[in-house]
Design a protein that fits this description.
eight-stranded antiparallel beta sheet; 14 strands; Immunoglobulin-like; 3% helix; mainly beta
């Protein structure tokens, strides 16, 4: 259940204050479905009001890795990051993906099953705000989405949103010898796949707004 906060006109800077999040529901049951290792701590917090859905990730990571701190959003896919996918239905005829690195850079794209990606798609302008903050032992990511954009994309039906909530724990960055980053994959819902894959129906759960 995503709890509703009482005040309607929240200032953007206020979302970084811990006192705002004291009433938030917290998800902590993340795992590494394709590894026998213990999953590093990951927390996902949610709040909303009539205008916005507020999301926060608290990530434990002693070695935060970021690939090429540039404006190219595809570099996020080679970095430490958190991810949240929104789908319209279980068939995943259309779904929308947000991947955000510790600096707050966002990789947004649209998709359809199976793994048909449109990387040119962007979340509706002025309806998203992402921020990242790095710490000694990890990072936090804040995501604010307008309720209107969720409705316009048909991924919020009444008060329910079908979501996949994930984390890419980067162990090494791309290099001359290794073209792709080495990533350990972490998920809220355990997908029923032999290989690492979040782009399947079984990786989704439901958030309900009170």
């Amino acid at each position: 259940m995503v709890k509703k906060i009482n005040f309607q006109n929240i200032e953007p800077s206020k979302i970084f204050e811990d006192s705002i999040w004291t009433s938030a529901n917290v998800l902590e049951d993340f795992s590494q479905p394709w590894s026998n290792a213990d999953s590093p701590k990951t927390k996902f917090l949610t709040l909303h009001n009539d205008q916005f859905l507020f999301l926060r990730f608290d990530v434990e990571d002693n070695n935060v890795l970021i690939h090429k701190e540039s404006e190219d959003k595809m570099n996020v896919a080679q970095s430490d990051r958190v991810e949240i996918f929104y789908r319209e239905n279980k068939k995943m005829d259309s779904y929308f993906c947000l991947e955000v690195d510790p600096n707050g850079r966002v990789l947004d794209y649209a998709a359809s099953f199976y793994r048909k990606f449109n990387n040119n798609w962007v979340w509706p302008k002025d309806h998203i705000l992402t921020t990242g903050k790095k710490y000694l032992n990890g990072y936090k990511v804040y995501i604010t989405l307008s309720i209107q954009s969720l409705r316009d994309l048909r991924i919020m039906i009444k008060n329910k949103i079908q979501v996949g909530i994930y984390r890419g724990d980067c162990k090494s960055l791309p290099s001359r010898k290794q073209k792709e980053a080495e990533i350990n994959w972490i998920s809220w819902v355990t997908p029923k796949t032999e290989r690492s894959d979040f782009h399947v129906s079984s990786s989704f759960g439901i958030l309900t707004l009170e």
